[in-house]
Amino acid sequence: MDWRVYQRHGGNRGADFYGTCLEYAHDLWRRGLPARALLCLDRAMGADVTARDPVVGSWPMPYAAMAWIMREVPRELFCGNPRVHFQHYADRMNEPRKAVRAWRAWACWALACRVRPDLPGDPRHLVQEPTLADIGQGLRDHGLPDEAEHWQWLLAEVCP
Known about the structure:
Layout: H1 15-30, H2 34-45, H3 54-58, H4 63-72, H5 82-91, H6 98-115, H7 132-142, H8 147-158
Helix pairs in contact: 1-2, 2-4, 4-6, 5-6, 6-7, 7-8
C-alpha cells in the first residue's frame, strides 16, 4: 500500500475512506513506519462517519491504536513528538467538521501526554490546553455516541 490508496475516494471522506485509513495505518505500522501510521489514524479521525456506518461499529475511533503505537514504538524508529503534533493540530484545525476534529486531536494529545510523559510540549506554542473534563465534554457534544466514554475508559484503564 502507499498514499495512492486515498485516490479512489476522491473528495469523499466517508466510511470507505475511514476504513482505508485504518487499513493503511496498520500496513505502515507493520512496515516500521509509526509516525506515518499515526498520521493515517489522524486522517481516519477526520472522516465524516456516523455510528450507523458498519465500519465504525466494527472499528470505533482509533484512540486505542493511537495509544498503543505511541507506547509500543521502538525508540530507534522515528515517531516524532505526538504530543506537539496533536497540540498544534488541535489548535490550528480548520473546516470541515472543525469542532469534532479538534476535540479528537485534543483527546489524542491527552493520550500522548499520558502514554509518553517523557515527550515535552511546545513551550513556544502558546495555547490554552483543555482539561480532561473539557475534552470529554467536547467529544460528547460533537463526537459519536459513546465516543467520550470510550476515550475516558481508555485513559483510566489502559493508560493510567
